[in-house]
Each structure stands twice: as C-alpha cells, then as structure tokens.
Amino acid sequence: MMKVRWSPDARERMDKTADFIQEQFGLKSKMRFKKEVRRVNDLLKANPYLGPVEPLLEDLPSEYHSIVVNNLNKMVYYIKDDIIHIADF
Predict the structure, then answer these.
(1) Which CATH number covers residue 16?
(2) By three-state DSSP, how is residue 19 classified?
(3) Is the pLDDT of residue 19 over 90?
(4) pTM of the predicted model, to two decimals?
(5) Tell me: the pLDDT tens digits for 26-77?
(6) In the chain, how many domains are there?
C-alpha cells in the first residue's frame, strides 16, 4: 500500500470546505464529509491509479489524476517515488 501526503494548500482547502459544510449544514454533515474524504484517501492507498488523468493538467510534467469525493469536490494528485501526493482539493 502506498503512502498519501497532502500538500499544505490541499489540506487547507479541504479544512475550509469542511468548515463551510458545518456552517451551512451542521456538525453531522461535516463529520460525514470528513469520513468520505478518509474513505477516498484509503481507496487511493490501495488503488493509486483509480482516478483518471486530469485532462486540464495534461501539459504539466507530472501526470496528475483526480478522484471525486462528492458531487462538488475532487482530489487532484500525482504519484512520485511510491507516494501519492494530494496536490489540490
């Protein structure tokens, strides 16, 4: 199983999204959201190429993939040295 590392920016965006969800829909919704993020994180550990190549980032040197967390959010990541790097959320 590969390790997953979040960039500080991606972690901050995910945290801000979780806080927004709590403000709008309550703590229970925030906890469900964070549970779903953890589930997707664990899926990537076992299946790093699960997400398709991100078409908007095809011109960059690294091969970026994305995976949908929910209807409004996705994680953008690349794989380097057997580590999954979450670049954006």
Answers:
(1) 3.30.2310.20
(2) helix
(3) yes
(4) 0.89
(5) 999 999 999 999 999 999 999 999 999 998 898 888 899 999 999 999 999 9
(6) 1
Domain that holds residue 54: 3-88
Cα(69)–Cα(82) distance, integer angstroms: 22
HSE at residue 19, side-chain half, CA atoms within 13 A, is: 6
The Cα 45–Cα 20 span in angstroms is 27
Distance CA 25, CA 53 (A): 32
Query: Residue 46 has what pLDDT?
Result: 93
**CA-to-CA distance for 58 and 9, rounded, in angstroms?**
21
Per-residue buried b or exposed e for 30-50, using 16+ beta carbons within 10 Å of the residue's own CB: beebbeebeebbeebeeebee
